[in-house]
Design a protein that fits this description.
heterodimer, A: 372 residues, alpha/beta, UDP-N-acetylmuramoyl-L-alanine:D-glutamate ligase, Protein-Tyrosine Phosphatase, Chain A, nine-stranded mixed β-sheet, 13 helices, 17 strands, 35% helix, 20% strand, B: 251 residues, Rossmann fold, six-stranded mixed β-sheet, four-stranded antiparallel β-sheet, 6 helices
Chain lengths: 372, 251
Amino acid sequence: MLAIDPGLLTKLGSQDRVICVSATNGKTTTTRLIADILRAAEIDVVTNHTGANMASGVTGALAAPHAVSVAVLEVDERWLTHVVDPLTPELLIFGNLSRDQLDRSGEVHAIVNRWRAITEADPTRHVIANSSDPHVVFAALPARVTWVALGIPWIQDATTCPQCSELLTWSDDGFECIACGFAEPDADYRLEGEYFLAGERRIHLDLSIPGAWNLMNAALAATVAEAHFEIPAEDAIKAMSSVEVVSGRFSKHRLEDGREARVILAKNPAGWTEVLNWLKGRDAGVVLAVNAHIADGRDTSWLYDVNFELLRGLSVVASGERALDVAVRLRYAGVECIVEADPLKAALAAAGKEVDIIASYTQFTYLTKRFW
Amino acid sequence: MESTLSIALIYPDLLGTYGDKGNALVLAHRARARGITAEVIEVDARSSIPESCDIYLLGGGEDAAQVAAAEGLRLAKSSIERSLHAGSAIFAVCAGFQLLGNSYAAADGSELQGISLVDMVTTAGSDRIIGEVVIEPSQASGLPLLTGFENHGGRTLLGPGEAPLGRVIAGMGNGNGVDGVWRDGVIGTYLHGPALARNPALADYLITYVTKSVLEPLDDPLVDQYREERLAFALLRGAKLKRATRNLHRG
């Protein structure tokens, strides 16, 4: 992180109504969706939705000249503690927490406890939180919470109770701890398939961005619109429907051979699992482009947390600087692949009418900055 | 042994933070490639650990999960010991390796009980060790260099009757020049997560130990290339660091 004048964030924060979005996955997209919803409702917005979510990026967003009424800020889950005090946001949005780059961020419980300290310090602050994620629920509980049930596709980090460490019981009704009574709260809003449920209303989430994970981002943004800004969810969803690309995510590039390649960012086991579930229903060639720099996580062990078995039968190319890690993982998943370190050559080598390139963080920034 | 190689993946929901189930995949794959039927039994945190599986796998986990796993393992200790006595093997990495000892340190420094299968104690180090590791196993093992990744804050001291898995060439391991523990049927290491994916010879050692059969070598250029890449990376990096440190002292 860049060194920042501690007074600067405070000064900048005091000028605006500030809301902060944080999560392991989906924070950039959710931030962008909320900003678009507010703009459509003719609210002036400043935002940092380019993936610059540590304190330096936050300062950048606020320091740019602007006449603002609401600052919508994406904040890295590890840095939330550092920006809450100086910025005094009126709303915190907690999406999900799961294992991510354990070599640099430490394990999930450490982040949960830091979030919990924020809500304990100011229980009057409004928090909009995913009631399906036990880590998020434990972190949000002390605050004034609006709950939205988004579902939890990845429960492998939520075996034990965040409150008392005994084993959690999972059922169709969600999670419960028999030992201490910690349980999934009743939700005010809910995501059900492609529908957003608000009381008696059942509204179709008509999106241009793909995948189940973006339905979750959109439902979270719709909850923010209705529960905090009193913008009807119907209007919010209309405002989100035309978003096609978010900071390079899902952007398309014409390959030399005339086919289209789309790039999708996946940063951790939960994110990869969501993307693989989406890929298995498609008929595109697949490039898995993985690096292991600090921003990707230097440890590639997570490859074995993800069910690459889902890719059996697809045309797959292992790529990136860690193409061999990917290829060996695919071998043990029973998935045939080609090895080609260069991601664009890999895309040309993949069969199919179009190609999906699933990229780790530095592969994603390389591709989107350089070619897209 | 019975006709099917049974691989017990112990508490993947507690001790599975770093892709640890990869070890079960590698063992099953390499056994099947030799015509040995293999079965992976996932033993979740609410189930009891079955007796007389051939290979028991323990992985890495967060602190609360490690405590929960320790309780279940203590209950199963005598049955695991009976299995080991009957020729089974246990392969334990990271938090799972620490649990084999007499005690280990929690994140807050407090001392917690292990299962005392191995005479060793783990204390909390001053910092967390994160990075590539290379281990040179003892010559008697017949194993080549081992490559892996470590991410832990533990410093593990083996008792006088215990031997390590090998000497640390790059990285930290137990924190005193050696890594892990090695004895008949019991292998522990700080090479975490899917350590066997990078070290197929270690996987074959375990299969050979429990099946008591000689395995045909597997021609596997992809994995050979992968091992060479990781070893070169770690050793080159280690050499560069040593040079830099030396120059620093001279300068």
